[in-house]
């Protein structure tokens, strides 16, 4: 591996490096030798040098990547999402050479991308009519100068030609006199020619200075027009479909079901003996009427599948290599995605690139727990604090969202400069804490003796986090680097929580919440794109819960959120996708598969439906889950399974409500549709850290209704953050040029640790915040406001 050191080059200011390193592949093969190439802000690897021109095994963009040193020779690069490279160098010097080059490349990549975005933003601006008139007037004047010069050249050129003709004649006039006239005419011609050249250069310079800008503007407008045409065409098709459906409804004819996107799982448990709910998929599903319920009050579910395996699935299995799962487990996991359950009448339902087959990521496992002894008796005996129940009403500042976002189609949502008019007076850190509004579900789960029943309650808890998103369309404030939020509700709700913004590129928030019965932590990041008609938000990072009494631990990833009707109509939010909740430690092997059904106007499904099953270590379905993510979730145990593996029949017990949404305050529509808990999150409190979200001036001004001042403060804070970041980048570049390491940003209350049984790293709580608060020692906190 000695080829690595000293291979750093410069290409247009972006560092390059190449050499052999060891990359973690899996637990069977461990670290494998790979050829790595750092070029133009991207780290790529190959099995050998001969593959460089044709077979790249994996890449990761350093813009937004996290670079973490593990030990003297090992370091980790992660994009905060699905890609993580675990790399080992031969020596500490070699490891430091790579880390320094990677950090410098990250700084350069961020700067280059931001420069491009600033140029795009300038291009996207509408040119004032005065500027257009001024430019046109200037070009017209220069063109007139060229025409004048052209006329003079023509005039003096003709005079020179006549003088030359006279020079050849045999007239009596002296040769000297005729020669003098020729020289005079030639001088005039030369002067006018030079004037023509100068006028032409002036016109060309002026045209070029404006032409490049206008050309980019024209290209931008053309792209915007094409995207708008596509959006309008889609809306026209939808309008036509709705009109056809309306005609069928007036004629009392059935409306054919249409699903807006592919549904991978449907679990139907509605009342009625013949409720064959339509399922759209690429598989053949046969539906059967529900059997009559037994005398004991149990319900019987019948499941029938004709699974057609696609070639893409075969190819996928071929790429994943070895696995600890049995073939039967794989079959059940895949076929459960196409399940259709029909219930007897019981309870109505509530309203980057990597193709290396050796380099699969290892199975995720929950991180080691060093706090079990500390969470056994957290509940405070102090009296409950009196808290506010509402915030000031939202003022009426009319502003078109489309007017702001029409030039931002295809961009990351976090890159779009948004005024506070489209915000709500809460930080994203506070929004994350809202996940624990229904923490009583976790209290109930902690009391469960059966691990599968406990997992069913955990599933209900994960769904409850989306309850308020149906009518909460305001954007939370993006946290500043180092911003924190503390929420101590031990006096009434029995838990306390701390969140911190631990990274800016990429934006990552870490959260820790503890109770006497359970412990939760999560690392939240996201990618978001504005698509013209809607904004799609894809969460990254995992969430975890542990129950110390039983040792059971579960992890999951959040589903996709889409905000619709950006152009016209009322904004509305949809949650869709599949969530897999995986058990580990004492609950190893248990899992729950939840499917959030995407909204469709033409679907016969109950809108906002969530359906799923809980399976034990033997892949037997033990609990069934149904409901909606905006109202309630019901769960029922599977008492008996009969039939064939391809057509099982589940006999279930009675459904019980695991979660039900509390009614919103009567006048909450006047203040951002906040719940009571949301109103209390930004309530001013003494003794919190100086970096707490409640001390953020732009957010406080917005809550008080002073939006103009809030916008000014928001710009000031963002510029202050950019100045600090540029300073760090400059210091990092200076350190790299001197060949010395530059320390990466370290969060105040969290640290990155390796998960037990995994090569993944997550930010975990240092357990120092509450001690610092008790002593009111905030000496280490950055000054961010």
Automatic annotation (TrEMBL):
The keyword Phosphoprotein belongs to this UniProt entry's keyword annotation: yes
Record's keyword terms, sorted: Lipid transport, Lipid-binding, Phosphoprotein, Transport
Any one biological process term the GO annotation gives: intermembrane lipid transfer
Record-linked PROSITE patterns: OSBP, PH_DOMAIN
CDD domains for this protein: PH_OSBP_ORP4
Span list, region Disordered: 257-278, 309-389, 683-743
GO cellular component, one term: cytosol
Entry keyword Flavoprotein: no
One Gene Ontology MF term: sterol binding
Residue spans of biased composition, Basic and acidic residues class: 363-374, 692-737
Residue ranges occupied by any PH domain in the UniProt entry: 14-107
Compositional bias segments (type: Polar residues): 259-278
Family: Belongs to the OSBP family.
PANTHER family linked: OXYSTEROL-BINDING PROTEIN 1 (PTHR10972:SF205), OXYSTEROL-BINDING PROTEIN-RELATED (PTHR10972)
Protein name: Oxysterol-binding protein
């Amino acid at each position: 591996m000695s080829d690595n050191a000293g291979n750093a080059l410069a290409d247009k200011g972006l560092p390059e490096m190449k050499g052999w390193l060891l990359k973690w592949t899996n637990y069977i093969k461990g670290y494998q030798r790979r050829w790595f190439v750092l070029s133009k802000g991207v780290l790529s690897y190959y099995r050998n040098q001969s593959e460089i021109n044709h077979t790249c095994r994996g890449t990761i963009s350093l813009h937004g990547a996290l670079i973490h040193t593990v030990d003297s020779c090992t370091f980790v690069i992660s994009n905060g999402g699905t890609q993580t490279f675990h790399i080992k160098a031969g020596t500490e010097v070699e490891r430091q050479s790579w880390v320094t080059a990677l950090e410098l490349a990250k700084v350069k990549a961020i700067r280059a991308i931001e420069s491009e975005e600033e140029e795009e933003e300038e291009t996207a601006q509408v040119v004032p009519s005065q500027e257009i008139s001024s430019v046109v007037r200037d070009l017209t004047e220069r063109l007139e100068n060229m025409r004048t010069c052209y006329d003079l050249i023509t005039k003096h050129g003709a005079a020179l030609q006549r003088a030359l003709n006279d020079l050849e004649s045999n007239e009596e006039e002296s040769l000297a006199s005729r020669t003098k006239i020729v020289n005079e005419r030639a001088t005039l011609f030369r002067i006018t020619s030079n004037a023509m050249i100068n006028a032409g250069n002036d016109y060309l310079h002026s045209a070029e200075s404006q032409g490049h800008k206008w050309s980019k503007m024209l290209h931008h407008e053309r792209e915007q027009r094409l995207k708008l045409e596509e959006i309008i065409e889609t809306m026209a098709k939808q309008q036509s479909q709705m009109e056809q459906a309306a005609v069928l409804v007036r004629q009392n004819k059935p409306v054919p079901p249409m699903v807006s996107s592919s549904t991978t799982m449907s679990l139907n448990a509605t009342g009625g003996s013949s409720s064959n709910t339509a399922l759209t998929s690429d598989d053949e599903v046969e539906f059967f009427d529900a059997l009559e319920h037994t005398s004991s009050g149990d319900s019987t579910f019948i499941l029938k599948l004709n699974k057609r395996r696609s070639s893409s699935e075969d190819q996928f299995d071929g790429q994943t290599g070895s696995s600890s799962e049995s073939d039967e487990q794989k079959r059940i996991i895949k076929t459960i995605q196409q399940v259709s359950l029909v219930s007897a009448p019981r309870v109505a339902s509530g309203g980057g690139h990597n193709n290396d087959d050796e380099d699969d990521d290892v199975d995720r496992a929950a991180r080691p727990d060093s706090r079990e002894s500390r969470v056994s008796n957290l509940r405070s005996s102090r009296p409950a604090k009196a808290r506010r129940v509402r915030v000031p009403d939202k003022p009426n500042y009319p502003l078109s969202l489309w007017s702001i976002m029409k030039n931002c189609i295809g961009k990351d949502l976090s890159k779009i400069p948004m005024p506070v008019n489209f915000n709500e007076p809460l930080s994203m850190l506070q929004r994350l804490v809202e996940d624990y509004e229904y923490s009583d579900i976790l209290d109930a789960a902690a009391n469960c003796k059966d691990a599968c029943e406990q997992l069913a309650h955990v599933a209900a808890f994960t769904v409850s986090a989306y309850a308020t998103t149906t009518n909460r369309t305001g954007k939370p404030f993006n946290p500043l680097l180092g911003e924190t939020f503390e929420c101590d509700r031990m006096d009434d709700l029995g838990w306390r929580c701390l969140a911190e913004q631990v990274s800016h590129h990429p934006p990552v928030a870490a959260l820790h919440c503890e109770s006497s019965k359970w412990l939760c932590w999560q690392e939240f990041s996201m990618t978001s794109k504005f698509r013209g008609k809607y904004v799609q938000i894809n969460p990254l990072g995992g969430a975890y819960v542990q129950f110390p009494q039983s040792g059971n631990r579960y992890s999951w990833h959040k589903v996709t959120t889409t905000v619709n009707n950006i152009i016209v109509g009322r904004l509305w939010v949809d949650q869709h996708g599949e969530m897999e909740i995986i058990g580990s430690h004492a609950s190893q092997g248990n899992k729950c598969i939840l499917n959030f059904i995407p909204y469709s106007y033409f679907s016969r499904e109950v809108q906002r439906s969530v359906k799923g099953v809980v399976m034990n270590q033997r892949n037997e379905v033990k609990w069934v889950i149904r409901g909606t993510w905006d109202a309630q979730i019901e769960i029922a145990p599977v008492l008996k399974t009969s039939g064939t593996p391809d057509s099982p029949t589940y006999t279930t017990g009675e459904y019980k409500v695991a979660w039900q949404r509390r009614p919103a305050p009567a006048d909450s529509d006047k203040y951002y549709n906040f719940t009571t808990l949301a109103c209390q999150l930004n309530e001013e409190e003494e003794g919190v850290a100086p970096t707490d979200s409640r001390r953020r001036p732009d957010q406080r001004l917005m809550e008080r209704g002073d939006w103009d001042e809030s916008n000014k403060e928001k710009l000031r804070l963002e510029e202050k953050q950019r100045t600090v970041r540029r300073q760090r980048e400059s210091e990092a570049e200076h350190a790299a040029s001197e060949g010395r390491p530059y320390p990466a940003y370290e969060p105040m209350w969290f640290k990155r640790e390796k998960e037990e049984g995994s090569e993944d790293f997550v930010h975990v709580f240092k357990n120092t915040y509450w001690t610092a608060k008790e002593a009111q020692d905030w000496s280490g906190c950055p000054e961010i406001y």
